[in-house]
Amino acid sequence: IQDADVEKLRTLTQIKLNLEMAATDEMVEIACRLRPEMAMLVPEGRHEVTTEGGLDIVAQEAKLKKAIARFTEAGIISSVFIDAELDQIDAAARIGASVCEIHTGPYAHAFHHKGRDAESPAVLAELDKIRIAGEAIRSHGMRFNAGHALNYFNVQPVARLPGIRELHIGHAIVSRAVFVGLREAVREMKRLMREAQAYLPPNLPKPAR
What we know:
This protein has 209 residues and is an alpha/beta fold.
């Protein structure tokens, strides 16, 4: 994506625009100028095809806190992409983040390596880490989102977690859209997510979407 693409998206998008970005001075300036509804800070490596791990907030609290403060001043909801680690969640609360998106890559990889067995102990262990992280996030008054490597086969156990607000899914939907079109690909994913929510026990809060 190029700078001009971001400008066009801000002008043309009629739904929530979420800008995923590194916490560089240049990107913070762009975000504050364009004012997306949400800015999500992610780690960024020049040779990565996509983000492969969570942001280490603990190691750079001062820098990230300044970026979050700039977003807040500009009226932008701030989000951080982190691993399911309690020290990172505590740090996210300290820097003033409004949203934590939990990295679901380890769960997705376990799901794949265990032959898509959702009841595998390895898969359940990774899912439990996400659940515990979600509880910690919500206890700090932050929103609980999740994403990375989610697809049509592994999405439902995550969508079923209590209190989850959003799932960020890109590659799987776009890949499916090659065969069925984007509208149908999105419809199929939404159906799976809604089915998962319907199976929640009545005493657990349902996700917002």
